[in-house]
Amino acid sequence: MALHEDRRRAESFGDDPLLYDRVRPGYPPELVDDLVAESPADVLDVGCGTGMVSRLFLGRGCQVLGVEADPRMAEVARQLGCQVEVSRFEEWEPADRSFDLVVSGQAWHWVEPESGARAAAVCLRSGGRFAAFWNETVHSAETMEMFLGIYRRLAPKLIEFSMVLGTARPYIPADPLQDPTVLALVATGEFHSPARKLYRWQRRYAVQDWLGLLRTASDHRQLSDVRLAGLLAELERQLEGTEELRVGYETRLLELART
């Protein structure tokens, strides 16, 4: 099953949207600096969740509209000052509205590639830009060794491909034109000049916030309640006395121009 087809997993984040909004890492200000460099007036936030990305652009003076499939997440975004319409992006009706910038933070992999690319082309103005970005986690060697010892015993299936563990390292071809996301967008005939950029930064977590973050991770939420509780209890035991965790992030930006 392709990731965008796993709707149970895609919509698991809304089980506790306030926790999600509090503990998710966010994005570095340098990323937003680059995306507002050309002064986009109107921004569309695809898969906006609780509005974490939307609020970054609202803070830079942009008009922002979010599209979110989960009404629970959308409601929290509205409570936090964002304008949101509930729909999967592939089915969303722009109603003659157009935008200077379409962004998607940690969400484009939940969109069906071909129909999502066509939808982005429809709602972007000529000369506008499409920007998708994802966080990848980078733990210190010491922290990773401790985590892997626990996960091998209690949740071995999560080790192979987990965003929060930092083992999810998707294949990124050297040539951007071979990237599946780029291929789908370019195939519409409306996008060109793919570019990528990497941002490295850190966030500090209190232990309980880190455990809360794990509760929001879609792969961890596939565990049974008993197994997840056991995993979190063992992690908490091992981290007892730790004042904070310093977690590294690499944010990867993929950007294309609209013809």
Overall description:
The protein has 259 residues and is α/β, with parallel strands linked by helices. It has one domain (3-139, 163-203, 248-258): Rossmann fold (3-Layer(aba) Sandwich), CATH 3.40.50.150. Helices cover 35% and strands 25% of the residues. It is built from 10 helices and 7 strands. The chain has a 7-stranded mixed sheet. Helix 5 (71-79) links the parallel strand 2 (63-68) and strand 3. Helix 2 (17-23) crosses helix 9 (207-216) and helix 6 (113-123) packs across helix 8 (180-186). The longest helix has 14 residues, at 141-154. The mean pLDDT is 93.
Termini, distance in Å?
33 Å
CATH-scheme architecture: 3-Layer(aba) Sandwich
Task: Assign the structural class, choosing from mainly alpha, mainly beta, alpha/beta, alpha+beta, or little secondary structure.
Answer: alpha/beta
Rg from Cα: 18 Å
CATH superfamily placement: Vaccinia Virus protein VP39
Which fold name corresponds to the CATH topology? Rossmann fold
Q: Globular, elongated, flat, extended or rod-shaped: what is the shape?
A: globular
The biggest beta sheet reads: 7 strands, mixed
Total number of helical segments? Answer: 10
Helical content class? 25-40%
- Determine the mean pLDDT: 93
* % residues in beta strands: 25-35%
**SSE topology string:** HHHEHEHEEHEHHEHHE
Number of domains: 1
Low-confidence stretches: none
**Going across the major beta sheet, what is the strand order?**
3-2-1-4-5-7-6
CATH classification class:
Alpha Beta
Number of strands: 7
